[in-house]
Amino acid sequence: MKTIVVGNPRVSQCQKPTGWLGLFHLWRMNSRHSNVTDWGLAHISVEKQYTILDVGCGGGRTVSKLAAAATQGKVYGVDFSEESVAASKRSNARWIEVGRVEIRNGSVSQLPFPDGMFDVVTAVETHFWWPNLPSDLREILRVLKPGGELIIIAEIYKGANTTMARLAEKYVSKTGMTLLSVDEHRSVLANAGYSDVQIVEERDKGWICGVGRKP
After folding, report:
1. Taking the alpha carbons of 42, 3, 128, 22 in that order, is the dihedral positive or negative?
2. What is the domain class of 9-213 according to CATH?
3. Distance of CA 134 to CAs 10, 123, 141, 178, 192, Å?
4. CB atoms within 10 A of CB 42
5. What pLDDT digit, counting tens, does each position of 57-98 carry?
6. Is-contact 198 190, C-beta < 8 A?
């Protein structure tokens, strides 16, 4: 995603990893996104009994972090890439074996879960690829419990003071990404029905997280 040009296979691999390039990209995402994930998750509380969903679970690193925190709960991961689902299952094999983690294939636009199931939903480095961000945020709101929280975490957004962010803004019309500013993040969460919306940024790192609660 550092080099964003028209027709670049790296862009499609960010959206839906496939094949050997996809496996490499998933490994790279697990490693590279670990620090920003830890930073973002520090802005919410994860209780030991929580039921949690990670949307766009990729290689499964965030699922593992959440399973380690929710020691008496359960963590679900969902991704529309079959390669991602397989990779996440491998990296969380021990959690899956003891019934603490479940990984499913599915889309953020139609989550395969009932209403009001989750205490927390996380989305790391994925929301800017969603097909319809306002609608998809409402779909996440559906599966949250009343009082439950969504946190979106990313290392790229409009207005960030990084080379990667400036490149992404330059080529946004060609990549299909939905890049939002701090204020636009706040507005899209509030307009989707979330309350107590908070947006935190580390502008020089390009990091952003948004937290919203289901009323």
Report:
1. negative
2. alpha beta
3. 26, 14, 11, 11, 6
4. 10
5. 999 999 999 999 999 999 999 999 999 999 999 999 999 999
6. no
